[in-house]
Amino acid sequence: MVTTPETSQVMSAPDMERALTRIAHEIVEAHRGVDGLLLLGIPRRGVPLARRLGERLARIDGAFDPVRGVGSLDITMYRDDLRTGSARTPEPTRVPEAGVDDATVVLVDDVLYSGRTVRAALDALSALGRPRAVRLAVLVDRGHRELPIRADHVGKNLPTSRDERVSVRLADVDGVAAEDEAVLIERGPRP
After folding, report:
1. Cβ–Cβ < 8 Å for 151, 137
2. What pTM did the predictor assign?
3. Bond before 119 cis per omega within 30 degrees
4. What does each C-alpha distance from 23 to 13, 93, 141, 159 come to in angstroms?
5. Which residues partner with 109 through β-bridges?
C-alpha cells in the first residue's frame, strides 16, 4: 500500500516576503544601523534568502551594499553526519572582501530544526576569522532543538512533530514560479 503524505501550505509567497521585510527591519533595529553588518547565507536556501534580506536592508538603509554585504558559507565539511555518508556536494563559500573579522555576521537559513546545521556554520565561520558578533536569522523555526541554539530573528515559529517535514520552496533553488513560493508541512510516511 502506497500512502502519500498530507501536505499543508503554512506560508505563501506574500507571507514569506512580509516575514523577510520584518526580519530586515529587526536586524537594522537590533544592530542600530547597518555599519559592519554582513549576511552569510547557508546553502542551499539560505543563500537566496540572504540576498533578499540584503536587498531589503539596502532599501531600509542606503548605506548597506547588498553586493558587498552578502555572501555564502558552505558548511558541508563541518557537518557532524559526514561519516554517515549523507553529506551534500560542497558549494562555494563567498565572503565579501572585508572578511568577517570584527563584523556582525548574520547567518541566514531557511529552517531551524535540531541546531546541527547552525553548529556546523559556527565552526565554518570560526575558520574564516573572528566576528564581533554572530546572529541567526531563519525563515522558519520548527523546534526540536538538539543543541542549545536559538534564532535571533524568525519569520515564523512553527511547532511541528518529529514525523513532519517542513519544506521551503524558492524560485531560485526549486524552479517554482515566484508566486508559487511557499513553506509546506508534509505529514505522514515519506514517499
Report:
1. yes
2. 0.94
3. no
4. 15, 23, 13, 19
5. 138
